[in-house]
Protein 1
Amino acid sequence: MARTDIGPPNYRDMLPEIIKRNYGKWKYHEIIRPGVLKHVAENGEELYSVRVGSPRLVSVDFIRDICEIADKYCDGHLRFTSRYNIEFLTDKKENVDRIIEEVQKLGLPVGGTGNCVTNVVHTQGWIHCHSAATDASGIVKAIMDELYDYFVSMTLPAYVRIAVACCINMCGAVHCSDLAVVGVHTKPPKIDHEKVSALCEIPTTIQSCPTGAIRRHPDPNIKSVIVREDLCMYCGNCFTVCPAMPLADPEGDGVAIYAGGKVSNARKPPMFSRMIVPYLPNNPPRWPEVVDVIKRVLEVYAKNARKHERMGEWIERIGWEKFFKLTGIPFTEHHIDDFTHAVETFRTTTQFKW
Amino acid sequence: MARTDIGPPNYRDMLPEIIKRNYGKWKYHEIIRPGVLKHVAENGEELYSVRVGSPRLVSVDFIRDICEIADKYCDGHLRFTSRYNIEFLTDKKENVDRIIEEVQKLGLPVGGTGNCVTNVVHTQGWIHCHSAATDASGIVKAIMDELYDYFVSMTLPAYVRIAVACCINMCGAVHCSDLAVVGVHTKPPKIDHEKVSALCEIPTTIQSCPTGAIRRHPDPNIKSVIVREDLCMYCGNCFTVCPAMPLADPEGDGVAIYAGGKVSNARKPPMFSRMIVPYLPNNPPRWPEVVDVIKRVLEVYAKNARKHERMGEWIERIGWEKFFKLTGIPFTEHHIDDFTHAVETFRTTTQFKW
Amino acid sequence: MEGETPLLDELEKGRWPSFVKEIKRAAKKNKAALDLLKVQELSYKDKITHWKHGGIVGVTGYGGGVIGRYCDQPEKFPEVAMFHTLRVNPPAGWFYKTDALRKICDIWEKYGSGMTNFHGSTGDIILLGTKTENLQPCFDELTEAGFDLGGSGSALRTISGCVGPARCEWAMIDTLDITYNLTMEFQDEIHRPRWPYKFKIKISGCPNDCVAAIARADFTVIGTWRDSIRIDQEAVRDYVEKGFDIESVVKKCPTEAISWDREKGVLNFVAEDCTRCMHCINKMPKALRPGLDRGATILVGGKAPIVKGAYLSWVIVPFMKMEPPYMEVKELLRKIWDWWDENGRTRERLAELIERLGLKQFLRDIGLPAVPQIVYRPRSNPYVFLRR
Amino acid sequence: MEGETPLLDELEKGRWPSFVKEIKRAAKKNKAALDLLKVQELSYKDKITHWKHGGIVGVTGYGGGVIGRYCDQPEKFPEVAMFHTLRVNPPAGWFYKTDALRKICDIWEKYGSGMTNFHGSTGDIILLGTKTENLQPCFDELTEAGFDLGGSGSALRTISGCVGPARCEWAMIDTLDITYNLTMEFQDEIHRPRWPYKFKIKISGCPNDCVAAIARADFTVIGTWRDSIRIDQEAVRDYVEKGFDIESVVKKCPTEAISWDREKGVLNFVAEDCTRCMHCINKMPKALRPGLDRGATILVGGKAPIVKGAYLSWVIVPFMKMEPPYMEVKELLRKIWDWWDENGRTRERLAELIERLGLKQFLRDIGLPAVPQIVYRPRSNPYVFLRR
Ligand code: SRM
Ligand code: SRM
Ligand code: SRM
Ligand code: SRM
Ligand code: SF4
Ligand code: SF4
Ligand code: SF4
Ligand code: SF4
Ligand code: SF4
Ligand code: SF4
Ligand code: SF4
Ligand code: SF4
């Protein structure tokens, strides 16, 4: 019998010596160049971290490659960040340039620190998920190829965090990101009645629908359900509980784009991202329309926001009507909320810009 | 047969000559002393308005008294404001002092302009309404006796608008006032089953309840309803549609106090008032506990707010937790919203004061 | 009367004018007023209202304008056993000539308790308390004197507007004329209730909103402008020279559209950033004035808490020109009423219906364009009914 | 392989590292990876996913940790007909020694596709794609190597915390130790799903929230302090002298708690106004430091949109000391789970349940005091269940 419930390795066993010595005793840090952090301990010791972009979806050989660098320059230690970047940790300043050199040989960018576009939090997409309305890794690659310069520099007014999720389950951080792409279905589920009777629990399926669009099949001989299409907003929750109701559709599937979310409590409280483009069609392999919107918004932001101002903070200051004007993104009825707490978004003042 | 649908008198017939001449052609105004406005027209003509507090609930002789003053000094013209104050209008500067003198002889205060506590918007109360959980005119009188000095001066940081309503129907402006008192029932309706069968339409009654607390009487022989008391929050909507379900109760009835609402679009958008005291018992004739809270909050505001800052603007700047601290009003679980859009009031940040 | 109402007598003391004194004044001549005083004293003692639901009472041809009211102790207080109020539609802006007021007083002394509210919270003249049999003759004399009833029940309620162009330099629209014109146009809607619930219209001349329209009207008209604030820099300097604290004003501009250049003595202003909140104009009326391209913002849905909670009005038309005979606004009102009438449930106000069916649906059905000025911000949820 | 995947080949171009290159790398040694590449190309062509719902697959004794997955074209792509992923619980803070990583690589080369995610969005090591029969032996070797599975399904999910005291001067709590300690304490809750739905815990050392806990965790722990920020005025002046734009920082303080006195060269600070947002500290790490009376704010309810919409976490305990063995937080978690388990419907996350029953009810049942820090503002509606 195998061992169970052993839990993960103890983090203590994974820490470099300099960290063990200075655990909880860091005094301050500096970003000495894009991608390189210097942390100084109370006792004056210095730790250098070289941050490196990763595609996240990697082969074991990739991991071995980076292990090799860590063995050479970091006494066999490395870490990953909460956004998939790799960090090489060393107490030897002279190693920094060497690490950078080796990493660049592997084709990996050094950056992702400070006021940059860091790595994109994303999901499985067509690589692995049955729910996907779009791919994730592909969109990320297309976006980051275009925004590469923003990863390796720190020229933006503040942090810009991008997320991509392949369906509105939003695995990741789409709902609170400065910029986000989310896969959306736009056709109601297609019901395979035979499979429904075989695979699905009817009451659970009916109950799963947030809008009450799912009803029992009118023909009592058919143990299945029907969907009132006018009540369906393609959330896919029925499909999660009942595999016989797929929504994926080559014509209908595509992505929506969101902006203005954040997580940190710095300055303004955390904010939700808000829909700026309700729908763009899937256009693999490079989703040019999507990349275009993301880039355009980023550049308008970079040009107009004040120092230290996150995307959402900037937009809330100038007003969303101004945001749509500056970016040239058309405002449509779909932008107007009609879900549960919609009224909280309706304007209750004569204050607005033209 | 009487004439019908003649509508109100044409306002043009009611306007003083100076207004007819300068209609739509006013250039600016000044408040030359508390209660006295001077409006200057494009052509240089000057109109003086003397604003006078009224108890609103007045006898016809009161109206005749003020008509007399208007006849003497205003060519027989006067108006009322949207907050029940009387305005004597004259183009003769020398009449201003005379009007003030006459008005004061009647025991009426001159004021209600600028950064003051102006007249209290209020309702019927025990004087006329079947819904009342408290009186209105009496509370107003008790409050204004205490805040009189704020009516006849202009020393506050900004406007302070007070409203009183005798039940949560909130006839008036309680829901958007700087300070507001509202009558509340705190016991579920007492059902007179015989009267229900006689007077009430059962389905309408059941449907009237926002929380679904009303059910058909379990005994099919009794054509009436019952109330699930744990679901009732004493809104009285059932009583409005079914007279056999009164909520009024000498022990249960009392008032709640709200603060921080506003209507104008100046600076911050309009805001709702928010509950600061869930319940105080009715204590006629002078409701001392109520008057005390109103006065205390007003004074803390007067002392702490910045110039031009309305009550709600001040509170939102310093934070509600600070408001409760400064005023010493206890915060309770009842302050926490649990109605439809409650979640929008929950704090989604680590930012707060101690 | 002396000593009979010890609790109320307390409220004759103090500096604020006393309603008790007023009731007593009326009670000297009028028995109903005397009973009213006694009922009120009893309520102060019992801590409970002594009024009961009103039945359907009114005047011929009208479905509203009268609030029926009965005392729960008719034996003890026979003079107020019936005690109905009449809601009388006032002139726009609450301007009166004294002769008109005196006529009302005379009529009410004749037929009612002699007690009134000048005014009710909706803006009506409230004639407080009479018997059923007096309603019709009282009404007849009122119309004779040029006054008509206002609204009550599931009808259009008495419309009100701020003092506007009659005495305010900031009126961007003719609030009095619009109030009067709409009132005359919609007499039928006011007098004959036939909707799911009440409907209120209020009109303010500028965003200061001196009739609290945004909070209290299903249909809110607020004057505004589209061009730039007009600045008289000379007059601004004059304010400053006289010791006016201009920094405290500038600091509170919600959009940072204005700034004070102390060195140059110039008030800088970025018109496209200004959201026309009125604040700076309010504080420097001699120096700043609204622009000249004027009209109104139309909002809908303001109301008190019954049943789904209170709502502030929501912008539905950011800008509409307002010229007599106000055809555009009338047409919009009619469309909204039809939509509400068709879709609304009993006792469902417009805001609640819009919340239930969605603002998107409302705009579509009414035929209004979706523009970003309608919302503070776009949706955060992904739940878009793309095809509905 | 060349030319067979023209669409994906496009994504080998460009400066950002390519996942396609990675799949191709794995595909050279591994047939499943090759089929994965082809399925992905087909999806790019068809614009649709080719994966189907997974059945119940897993390892002995566990109810989760594996995501079952099947290809909808098993004949064409037999190597990925079954293509389950394993979620492996990483060390707290995602620190690794290379030997540990190499072991995982070796095991995964042996039993799986050779493709991974470092890491998944919850923070697990994702081993991407294997057959049912390989799950158990793969798991056995993983535990042998010191690794265990993370959470999936209606269980406690893999906990994560920011880098914290290991490398950050702002860690107010020991995020790594708390992560590890709770993970070890709640192994059963992670491995044996038995709740209404998933439950996530995330821990950030300070309000910067570098693991996005507030948005993505049902139970959010964020380090904070109660006393005053520590200011080294010398160091502040040093920043300014070096040309640092201190005004731009001060201006963005949300509470105006700080101000820069240019003349005196002093950063004024009003401790009781500061809401500890971190902004000024972030911008001047050498001069400003958090206070010393440290602990955490506890929030609950963060989640993505399914089903009732997305929620940010809500404050429920403004301040809690966080010392090992973290009994207070563990007790709170257990109480919350019991409450949720008892009251929650299937697929109802904590936030949705709290919204349905009310935060007031939640606090009462859990035994937490109502304090104003829990809300932005009190209720505006009058609908108080005073007696419930
Ligand atoms: C390494 C990492 C933590 C980890 O455990 O892995 C980390 C590390 C640091 N963060 Fe972070 N943050 C990390 C994810 C985050 C996240 C989470 C996310 O992006 O998903 C956030 C919340 C983002 C949001 O609000 O949407 C985050 C919000 C911050 C902030 C606040 C930024 C703001 O102004 O809103 C700071 C302060 C600052 O830099 O001014 C900060 C500051 C820092 C500092 C300076 C802390 C320190 O003293 O060491 C670290 C270096 C910052 C840098 O990259 O320039 N960190 N930081 C994460 C690196 C992610 C990456 O690879 O890019
Ligand atoms: C693998 C991963 C995405 C990734 O590529 O990184 C993932 C993948 C899936 N998620 Fe997720 N979620 C993943 C992190 C998240 C996160 C982020 C987080 O945990 O910080 C979220 C948002 C936070 C949250 O939980 O709300 C997230 C919110 C969801 C939801 C929506 C839950 C909600 O209440 O809104 C679902 C739908 C569901 O549970 O039915 C979901 C469901 C799924 C399922 C199991 C699909 C399903 O409907 O059954 C996906 C399996 C994909 C596959 O084929 O492997 N996943 N999912 C992430 C887990 C990796 C890991 O363990 O490290
Ligand atoms: C007479 C009246 C209109 C009417 O048609 O009857 C009126 C008249 C004026 N208002 Fe008003 N307002 C009147 C009710 C209101 C209301 C409604 C209410 O209180 O119910 C509001 C909205 C209040 C709110 O936000 O809750 C209102 C918000 C304003 C404001 C904005 C104040 C603010 O900063 O929020 C101004 C501008 C100012 O004074 O700075 C204003 C300014 C003015 C000016 C200066 C306009 C002018 O140039 O003539 C008038 C004299 C003001 C004064 O009293 O000092 N008026 N004003 C109302 C007098 C009520 C009373 O007797 O006290
Ligand atoms: C007389 C007046 C109060 C006053 O003393 O001034 C009044 C009195 C009554 N109102 Fe009102 N409302 C009065 C202005 C208002 C206002 C203010 C306004 O119109 O600007 C409001 C808030 C705005 C609004 O309409 O939402 C108001 C919101 C209500 C409500 C709650 C409506 C809602 O949707 O929330 C009710 C309850 C109902 O309709 O069943 C109500 C119901 C009532 C009833 C008819 C009681 C009932 O349940 O049937 C009251 C009759 C009292 C009586 O015995 O005379 N009254 N009522 C006001 C009308 C006088 C006038 O015509 O000038
Ligand atoms: S976002 Fe949707 S499609 Fe993408 S991994 Fe999560 S559940 Fe699957
Ligand atoms: S996709 Fe969503 S809205 Fe449509 S039927 Fe399924 S559960 Fe209901
Ligand atoms: S607030 Fe209530 S009690 Fe007072 S008048 Fe209006 S309906 Fe009657
Ligand atoms: S008072 Fe309100 S909540 Fe209570 S039963 Fe009546 S309608 Fe329902
Ligand atoms: S709303 Fe504007 S126009 Fe009307 S009275 Fe008030 S300040 Fe003047
Ligand atoms: S009107 Fe308001 S927004 Fe416009 S400049 Fe003046 S204060 Fe600023
Ligand atoms: S959350 Fe705070 S303590 Fe943790 S890494 Fe980020 S900045 Fe440091
Ligand atoms: S931590 Fe934030 S709130 Fe506190 S002083 Fe600094 S910027 Fe201001």
Protein 2
Amino acid sequence: MTVRKYWQAVNDALREELARDERVVIFGEDVAKPGGPFGATRGLREEFGASRVRDTPISEAGIVGAAVGAAMTGLRPIAEIMYFDFITLAMDQLVNQAAKVRYMSGGALSVPMVVRVFCGAGRGSGPQHSQSVESWLGHVPGLRVVAPGDPAEAKALLKGAIRSPDPVIVLDSSRLWTKRGEVPDGDVVAPIGEARIVRPGNDVTIVAWSWALSRSLEAAEKLAAQGISAEVVDPRSLNPLDEKSIMDSLRRTGRLLIVHDAVSTYGPGAEIAALAAGPGFGALRAPVVRLTPPFAPAPFPSHLEQAYYPQPADIETAALSLVRG
Amino acid sequence: MTVRKYWQAVNDALREELARDERVVIFGEDVAKPGGPFGATRGLREEFGASRVRDTPISEAGIVGAAVGAAMTGLRPIAEIMYFDFITLAMDQLVNQAAKVRYMSGGALSVPMVVRVFCGAGRGSGPQHSQSVESWLGHVPGLRVVAPGDPAEAKALLKGAIRSPDPVIVLDSSRLWTKRGEVPDGDVVAPIGEARIVRPGNDVTIVAWSWALSRSLEAAEKLAAQGISAEVVDPRSLNPLDEKSIMDSLRRTGRLLIVHDAVSTYGPGAEIAALAAGPGFGALRAPVVRLTPPFAPAPFPSHLEQAYYPQPADIETAALSLVRG
Amino acid sequence: MTHPVLTEPAAAADPVAKDRDALLALFTTMTRIREFELCGARQLATGKLSGTLHLSSGQEAVAAGVCHLLAGTDHVTSTHRGHGHCLAKGAAPDRMMAELFGAGNGYCKGRSGSMHIADPATGLLGANGIVGGGIPMAVGAALSAQVRGTTQVSVTFFGEGATGEGSLHESLNLAALWRLPVVFVCENNGYAELSPVADVLAADSVAKLAAPFGIPARTVDGNDVVEVVGAAREAVERARAGHGPSLLEYVTYRHDGHYVGDAQSYRTKEERAAWAERDPLLRAAERLRALGFDDETLDAVRADATAEMNAAAEWAAAQVPAPASSLTTDVYGGLS
Amino acid sequence: MTHPVLTEPAAAADPVAKDRDALLALFTTMTRIREFELCGARQLATGKLSGTLHLSSGQEAVAAGVCHLLAGTDHVTSTHRGHGHCLAKGAAPDRMMAELFGAGNGYCKGRSGSMHIADPATGLLGANGIVGGGIPMAVGAALSAQVRGTTQVSVTFFGEGATGEGSLHESLNLAALWRLPVVFVCENNGYAELSPVADVLAADSVAKLAAPFGIPARTVDGNDVVEVVGAAREAVERARAGHGPSLLEYVTYRHDGHYVGDAQSYRTKEERAAWAERDPLLRAAERLRALGFDDETLDAVRADATAEMNAAAEWAAAQVPAPASSLTTDVYGGLS
Ligand SMILES: Cc1ncc(C[n+]2csc(CCOP(=O)(O)OP(=O)(O)O)c2C)c(N)n1
Ligand SMILES: Cc1ncc(C[n+]2csc(CCOP(=O)(O)OP(=O)(O)O)c2C)c(N)n1
Ligand SMILES: [Mg+2]
Ligand SMILES: [Mg+2]
């Protein structure tokens, strides 16, 4: 175990994978000479050369499209999109191309690529740099989406993504970017599609990922002090979603609280709640609660952001009223 | 009342709105001289002139972006995107710009524009021309999304969209394009955000829109013959969703079946099911069922399309087993 | 821009002009493409096939001429009008036809249809239903070749309508910055769906779009296969030698509508007739006759191709349709 | 491309060079922009403000010079580095500052911050956090003017980094096809975030990108406000007269980092020092002195601007923060 910051864990994973597999290449805006807009690729160009680590123009569609073509022809590209909001510019290449190439070609072609995306929620970045639109990508057959919740996960899930035979979008959290955590030594690779129970409990299931996961864990701590035992489940992978683990937890607790930083309507929590209303119906003892920002763009000033994103106290209150009825 | 085909009703609405309000302009690929790739704009350039009805290059981002700017500065633009799948190329302008301009400017600016989109589901158009991604747009605060289910609706909802102070995406159905229906005479404008009960019933609520609505109505007819009374609800507007009407119906029937042509996971039905699991929980007497294509891209040959999209018989079976338990 | 007509021969004709074997092979490829299209249209007309077909009749010289210079390991991305590129790159007409029929042993297991045919064995990365969609992918394939240190060349075919898409310009810039071995091949057939190029492109020529990025570009008669090969040879050799991208604008014409069934009210019979006279097959046949080939030989090529395509269609029609169970296969390659 | 340095004066100087009032007004606008930026940076440094600020110090001549030619009814779209454009177009510094402070009476009710300031009353359609995002919107505003039959002109400011985005090229084509009254104004400051322009643009100049579309374009010294006005006058007049779009590439430099706090390891002190000598304020002051203005006058302009911005910041800091209740207002304009 070594203590690493989230971004350092990302950097470690990239370095190790570049060293392990010469097919791995990295490109994106400011990722090479500058070492990444947020430092994720620091030192990699120096270590692995200008051919494998490249700066690109500000061309999100071109970047992702080039990654698709490179992945189809023998490389394992990692493309970086600077903010989640900018994925809007690459949706054709992600959705109409990357996601469908394997299916459309009847399995003859594949797109083993990774798109690393920085999610700006909660950092005062304002309405065009704070969005969480993971449910869009979760809705696309052929894509995989993971959202690491701590440094160890950031490293292991990124490795899993790089080794995946399919296109994987890795959502990094800006709010967790400088958070420290223990990272296991050695080549630890997380499977894609398996949730983890971060904190076991009996009274209520809280499903959360990324930054919302850490706020949920804070809330769970305080709930414990009040005698309420919350089980906190981190799906880690949003596509595919580990339905079984989430439904198993619901069967144990009978109550479901979903917390996320995307807006609620047609958001990722809707799918989880829908599972509870479908296969989980028999286990459900109370209405499912989704705790999310209101249906509005993200504001920039920190006092409004505080009000916009559900805080630990809000999670605590929601869980309390869910359990006490 | 006049009998019109769906596309003729669209054409009528466009003509009447161009005549009513000189701020209305139309542009898109092949919409002017050719009269529209599918005929929706037939005759409009001749009648209203080359300034107000324009052909554009194949530039989805540029088209929608120009519509945003035009809408901010005094026009009421109607932009056409040839297939729903191509909206991927305009997502930045739709999501980061059109949807947020009013909010970001503190209400000082607005974007009263319409994007007409042709949804190719069920017409043998294959994986890149058949997608239904309305849940993406429903997830975006600031956008409105409507999906007309018959000629009368096509006309009235389009008129409502054109007169909306906000950006509205109007999803036209390729499968209903040549279907006939009675269209009320006169200037009938549908409100945006109100569902309609297309067929009242007591045993089960079926929520469906667009092409899936007509298949659901077929199924409801057959269910009636078996003594089962299905209430068929057409949300018409997916953003905002008329939660109240849907939950009221659920309260009457206790059972909810959602049918749509988008894939299930993180799809539009998830939001409706989530409402049932939340505010509707007390009324729910059985697990919510979502009947949708499998989690895969749309195939092109008609025999596979038949298997891909839930057919009336599938809807009937699902409703039967939901009611009979 | 307006759609030009090019009939001036190139200054120095490509050696292929005198190469009897090569020219016959080119004529054969072009004829096979034509016959594939005709056969496909017949299947539609007789109701054996349904769906949308975009035929490339009239544009065969480009596909044949460019692919003539490519190895099987070179990569190609194509468009909605891709049958010609597929055949020229080496795809088998029977499996292509099977794909049109929705048969399980079509190139895409019968699920994708005409607009998505892909065959990695011949370097074909796929036709594409998204205008401009294949262009950045070809840049990526060129990047791949460069990083892996091979001499593979990547070619992206697109119509002049794709100049409206930002993806082309982003790709040109990226390819130039990285000096990638990619050839941008535009088939300027004068129309994007129902709109003439004058209505959708402000530039005088497609070739001019490459200039800002320092990418060499030429506008070439796309209906003379010798001209096509000549320009492509330069570009492919440049790419293979590591000297970076090129853009070729081939001026051509589609004999048929945008899709089979298009009423073509946007153009005149006279225009179509004039271009019919510049048909690439006629012109290639003329060149062959000048080299001493007799009509009998050329007729035999045509007859063989007709027979080949009819056989392909017959075979395809007899294949097992893609089973419903295949609806959900090949969505993913497996869990990590 | 490499980032050029332009110091040659234009052949015929714009009349503004001799217009004492206009030149003083331009100098005043530029000084106010500079002082706004300095004041904003001070607020950050003293912890009164948090968040990201992109300062335009060093680039003031472009904003001031171009907007000098615009009426209040003309439209402008701006970028993440937009304070200068806002001020030059007529926005009030106190309400801008209030926006930076997240105050309820900021231009956007305090919810959006520096990157999104909009003020329709002065024709300002908004700064924009998306590189290239404002460009098609300006084309749309020009379309609106054309359809409504006004003589309004639309200007879109963007950095040279935006040349990487397809939206620029789509917009150039559309503007040229429709002969729209739009001026594309690129501030080429040599860097896109942390990357020099040589790494992100294959073209020799940004101006060259307009050529394929037949759009007149010039590369101009962006640090001499007289040069800026001269080139802009031509372009704005062309647009207003209905003769279509132009592109202006102004070569300039940002004195500060990409954002306040940027360590700027990607460029040398020497380079920064050399550009400091070409500071647009210094050069405008020189011109004013040559017209007979004394240092006292110029110092007074500066002192007034400093006082104005300090007062704006003080006022802003004292305003009521945007209330949480405003989180969900202005998302929609109402049900149809
Ligand atoms: C992104 C996108 N927009 C629009 C279309 C619809 N469409 C299909 S083909 C076509 C015209 C293409 O013209 P061109 O590129 O000249 O190719 P051609 O058909 O002439 O071969 C259009 C607009 C599409 N398939 N993809
Ligand atoms: C679509 C998009 N991609 C990336 C970014 C991140 N970003 C913000 S500013 C910037 C550089 C812009 O450079 P330039 O256009 O030259 O403007 P400058 O900062 O020099 O004024 C980048 C990459 C963004 N805001 N939007
Ligand atoms: Mg064409
Ligand atoms: Mg710059």
